[in-house]
Specification:
By secondary structure, the chain is an alpha/beta fold. The protein is 40% helix and 12% strand. α1 (25-35) links the parallel β1 (12-16) and β2. α2 (48-57) runs antiparallel to α6 (137-144) and α8 (210-226) crosses α9 (239-261).
Length: 309
């Protein structure tokens, strides 16, 4: 594991924030930074940020990008289709397949990565932050992304862990704790509050009959309600739409508070309000926005990372 110790070149930390499907923009951020010769020494992520960051340090980012760009909405729904349990909607076997193929193999460990890596999770029993800085990389990512209601909580050292976005949506503090001199942070939640519904509500399928059909339709209702919709603005929000927006509000407020207490040296805020929480199939526009965001802040990034403009 190598960390830059040259006093003329500060140790650069990259803090990748939570934000579900908006997180594909992290791919664009990393690609743009590397293209400009700016390589982070430390990478920390929360939720989707842990997925992208983990894939990057494990050398799988290009593979992951190809997969997400080829994915359709149907591909995403396959993760939620059938295996409903009391703990979440996600097909855990398919999730494991995804993590081990596109993030890190089951035997890859954080301490063996070429760069320092940290993933943030939340202790469901105490509400405290949990940082993964060693152990299985895929396991750490799974714990960091365990959004309640969608993904089952993860058991670790006699505690139940859920999504790190509940306590630290943009892990600047983790980067500093791991030794970063300067931190470039990506906040995916800067423009999501107050956005207007501008998506499309899909009609229910006529094939949804019986108990299994009702379960499938409930999952689709969940995803459709988190995807934006074009319902009349005076119509009362649906249950899952209200839950999704509540999560957005909480994460926005926590992000503001955490960044005020431990600010990043450069804060990138991709404009992604038009992308719904589970619209993972819109990866291309999220990645492009991530790249554009770096280009707009490039002068400031160069100033803090090299002292040059």
């Amino acid at each position: 594991m190598s960390v830059n110790t040259d006093s003329d070149n500060p140790c650069i930390g990259l803090a990748l924030g939570s934000g579900a499907s908006r997180g594909w923009s992290h791919i664009g951020v990393i690609k743009a930074l590397l293209r400009e010769g700016i390589e982070p020494d430390i990478v920390c992520g929360t939720s989707i940020g842990a997925i992208i960051g983990g894939s990057y340090v494990a050398g799988n980012l290009e593979r992951l990008e190809r997969w997400v760009l080829d994915s359709t909405r149907t591909d995403v729904l396959r993760f939620f289709d059938i295996k409903l349990s009391q703990s979440g909607f996600v097909d855990t076997e398919r999730l494991s397949w995804f993590l081990h193929n596109y993030v890190a193999a089951a035997d890859r460990r954080i301490e063996d990565m070429p760069k320092k890596f940290g993933a943030v999770s939340t202790n469901l029993g105490t509400g405290r932050e949990v940082w993964f800085r060693e152990g299985g990389l895929a396991d750490a990512v799974r714990a960091s992304m365990a959004l309640p209601g969608l993904f089952p909580a993860v058991r670790n050292n006699r505690r139940w862990l859920v999504d790190g976005g509940l306590v630290n949506p943009v892990p600047v503090t983790t980067c500093h704790a791991l030794g970063a001199d300067v931190v470039i942070a990506v906040n995916l939640n800067s423009d999501i509050i107050g956005k207007r519904n501008n998506g499309r509500q899909e009609a229910a399928s006529t094939e949804n009959n019986g108990v299994l059909g009702k379960v499938k339709q409930q999952v689709r209702e969940y995803s459709n309600s988190i995807f934006p919709n074009r319902d009349e603005k005076d119509q009362a929000p649906g249950l899952f739409h209200a839950i999704a927006n509540s999560i957005n509000i909480v994460q926005d407020r926590i992000t503001r508070s955490r960044l005020a207490g431990d600010p990043a040296d450069v804060l990138l805020s991709p404009r992604l309000a038009q992308i719904g929480m589970l619209e993972f199939h819109r990866a291309a526009e999220a990645i492009e926005e991530g790249e554009d965001c770096v280009q707009k802040a490039l002068e400031e990034i160069r100033r803090v990372t090299t002292g040059k403009q």
